[in-house]
Structures are given as C-alpha cells and as structure tokens.
C-alpha cells in the first residue's frame, strides 16, 4: 500500500535515501511471490522485473504452474505493498494502492494497460491509460500461443520498460496533483494571511502548509478568493463577517493572531462548522507594556508637551504633570493582561485596586491587588483607571457619562482593550468639562478611524477671509467697547449672526474659533493664548464667554454684498447687574472729560464683510462706516461740528504720528435724530436750551502707536466724547 508521498518517493530520482525498507510482490489473489529490501529505487525496479520474468517462465514450463485461482482473472496485477508507517503525514490520509492493470480479452491479442490509484475502500482516486507503445511487447509470443481465452496474460516488466513507465506515471501523477489535487484538495492545506505576521511564524507554517500572503486586499477581493483556502489567519483589521465565512466553501479554520476574536462572526462560524482559534499568550506583555507607556505619557503630559514644543513654545512648568508613585491604579478586569499591568505598576510604587467578579483572589493577593466589591468603589478610588475586559454585549459602553461622573477630577482613563468599551463621545465631553483630567486611548470603536475633517479644504478656502474678519472683530470689540468699568463687572452674551451666502456654510467652527481668539488676544499674553478650531469652545467655556451663533439671509441682500457678519453684545439675564445697568442713563456732567464712561451694552454692535478677500468693518456701534481693520487705529467719537478733524490732526502731528488713512462716519439714525443734549460743553439737563447735537466717528489709520498721553490730551478737548486706540 502506498500513500501519495510514498508513491512519489518510490518513483522519483532523488528519493533513494527515503525508500521504504521492505516490499512484497504478489499475484492478484494475494499469493506471495517474493519480498525484498532494495538498496535504492533502481534496485527495486530491477528486482520487480526479475520476479515477474521468473514467474512468466515458470508458467510457460508447466501449465500446472499457474495457481488455479489465478485462471479466473482476465488481467494480471502487480501489487507493491509497504509496511512502513512513519511516512504518513500528521493528518490521516487514504493509503494509495498502485495497480498496473491490463489483460488479454478472448480472441484478441491487444493489450491496454492502465494505472489506477485507489483508496483503502477501493474507490478510484486517480486513473491514467498507458500507451502500449511505451511498454513494448508485454507477453512473449511463445507464452501468447499457449494461452487460452481464460488464461491471464502476464505483464512482463523489464528494467528498461519499467523505468520508462515509472517516469510516465510520476509525471502524469504529479501534474494531476498540482492541477486538481486529490479529490479536488491540495496536497497541503492552503492558508490565506491577509495581514502582516511575524516571519518566524510564517516559517513554522510553511513547514507543513501552503501559505499565501495577500496584504492590502479589499473586502470584495477577499470574498472572491477565500473559496480556495482551507484556513484563514487574521489579526484585528480583517473583519470575518458571515458573508465572508459563507464564501469560504473549503474554510475549516479561522485563526486570530492575538487575543480578541470580536472581528469574527462566531455565530456564523459555528453554524458553518468553522473552528475559530486565538493565541491568548501572543500579546499579553505587549498590551501590558503599552498600558504602562500610556499611563506615563498621560501622567507627564507627553502628548501635549510634544504639540506645544512643535508649536514653538516652551511651557515647561505648565506641563510638568504628576508622579505616579503612591497613586491608586484601578484595574477593571484582572485577567492575564490586568495582572501583568498590576505587577508592572506595583514596581512603580502604585497602589493597586481591581474589580473583576471572576478574579482569582490568590493571584490578586500575590500581586498586592485589593479586590473591591463594586465598580463604583473602583471609580471613586482610582487616580488612574485602566480597562482590560473583552468586548462583549455586557461590556459595550461600560464606561459612559454616569461612570465618568463618579471619578475624581484628577482621574486619568486608559483603554488598550477594545474600542467601544468606553463611550468615546462621553469621554470627550468629560475631558472638555474637566470631569476627568486626561485619557490615554489606543483602541476605537471604528478602526482605523474614518477621515472626519472638522472642515473640508475647499470649505476653509471659502471661509478663510471671514476667519480673518471675525478675529479682527473680536479684537476690535475688546479694545474699543470694553473699558474696565464695564467688561470686568458685567457678564456679556455675544450674538454672532452669519448673513447672506455665509449662512449656507456647512460649518462655522473656524469663525467661532477666530472670534474667541480675537476677543481674548488683547487681554492675554501670547504664550498663554493657543486657541484653534479644536479647543475654542472649551476655552470660551473656561473663560465664561457666552457666544450664540445664528444665520440669516434677509438683511445682506439689501446691502450690495453677498455675505456679512454682525456681532451684538447684550447683558446676560443671569448677570446680577443686568437690571440695574439697563436703567442706567448717560448722565456724566462733563462727557468730554470722561473717555471711559459707561456705554449702553445694547449699542455695542460691529458688522463686517469681505470684498476681494479683504475684510471691512461697515458698522461700529451706532455708526455706519467702511474701513479695513488693520494696524494701529485711533477711533474718536465726537460732536459732528467744524474743527474736530483739525484738532486731532494737530495733536498727532505734534506727537510725530502720521495719519495714513481716515474715515468719518455719521451716526446711523434710522430716520430719527439721535444725539445727546449739549450744555456747558456736555450732555445733561444743564445743556444750553436743551439743543441736540449730532455725533460723528473719526477712524484714523496711523503709522505708529500712540501713547496714553496723546489719548488723554484728545479726550480733554471740547466736544470730544471718547477716544480709543486699537491695534489690529
């Protein structure tokens, strides 16, 4: 009996050293003719030929030499049987029987030999006809003439012919195996690996399997080829869905190179009879070490410090962080990874607590881990919380808003287990609100994260000039409308209205961020001001800024430009000073000498637009204007009467300041005369005959900064109501 490997070894030229040690040559009915222990394949072929020739001669010499049982056969068979079993591969495969079959039918002298490979149950596995011309004369003429129709023809295999036939059989057999395999299966199981694995692991697999590495396959491509494989080895990226498993018609095993198998549809695999295995020891140390790395990085603000340094800053004292020695590490899930983390953290001098209903108390005690009875108790104790649970139905969203709210404001959360155990939205909200101090996250619900830009490049190109405008408007408000006697005492709400085509923008986050940055820049040091599209909302919340955004198309269409932004300030109803301030009227006895008098909050309005990518201010307070907010600017509110421009020009000239641009804006009356009552050089009941005077606004662009002495001297001039210097 021969298996496939033994057959190939027997007849190939390079297998002499592995030849089976003993062979038996028999008649078709099992009569033993001879047994031999050949030294090599050539020796075996020669001995087989000699035995066959000797048997033929014996039959020719005596008609009684043939066993009577043999006469009932119409064919002659030569059987080679091996008693060696150590050449079988690990998995049981059918032993193969090599049969050289031919015959002499009644009244015919033709000979049609064929080679058949059978399984142990007699089922043909492979069959091939052998041309008579390749064998030569099979039976001598003397033997042929003495045979009757019922006498078996004797196939004489001389050495030369045996070698030729053996070569033909080997070539044909190996070709068939290569193309079709045995019963449609490959000689070695085929394994598909669509992800990167260790070369050492590949070397082990290649010893007994046919391994195909196909990295970078799409889901559709994987579906197309999976039908030809017996096994699939994946890491975490490949999703073994029910449809993929069903497409694997030959698939017997799915192996996960790692611990978790949440990327494999286990129910579908079970229904299809596909075995799912993992390698739980594979990344225990790696996961534990990565947890410690994230713990230290979060404790020492490594990520924030890296970004700060790349941004050209040196915030050493701000980013010192905390020591972990003496801090409590809460471990949610005390399995193999959790215990390994505990031992490492213990070496750092940390206190260890854990919650795990299935934890081994002895192992926990050996690692100096205190088992707490509830998760809530763990949350309350932990300075650092690390998660090491599987991702199953009961652990999905295990850490959400309610759980995070139970933690200390100094707690830092770590997750290197599975995405989805921590509610990522709730975690972000907790970080922004200061509910917890930090987080180190290695896994996400969607991996790899889908591209989710806050704003698309083409959208930002459209908004860019308005980003500049909003930053200028915020800075202008702080410098012009916020003297210390109002801004520091009153809580103000800002309403931003995006008008015209700007109202159709998909996102206004860049505009919001620019406004907050501009609003704070005049009262913040450059080193402490790092406001961008990502953190603007958090900064506004920390500074107590209340900013509302709205959209409108109505007004801009009447103005002659396609888009504008209007900023309005109003008192927050929650402000304790709101009701009192709304009743306050302008009653300063001498407004000309009160440059920083209180202003009505409701009059603090700025409108801007963009023309040819250049920002313009079209309204400032009650005044309609048009100027580019750039550089050092002097803004004077005065009575609209002759001589005021000359007074300002003279003062600036005396100080050596050159005027580069100038705009005079009348007050926006809305059809009504608006002004203050003039009298004794100012407004009030003592004004001369209660006459009303119009106001105007001078906006001057200067070539240099103006010191406070010049500003105060201008305020002291008659008819000058307010003077501010802004740098934009």
From TrEMBL:
Top-rank taxon: Eukaryota
EC number(s) reported in the record: 1.1.1.95
Signal peptide range in chain numbering: none
CDD domains: ACT_3PGDH-xct, PGDH_4
Top enzyme class: oxidoreductase
Pathway per the UniProt entry: Amino-acid biosynthesis; L-serine biosynthesis; L-serine from 3-phospho-D-glycerate: step 1/3
Family statement: Belongs to the D-isomer specific 2-hydroxyacid dehydrogenase family.
Name this polypeptide is given: D-3-phosphoglycerate dehydrogenase
Organism: Friedmanniomyces endolithicus
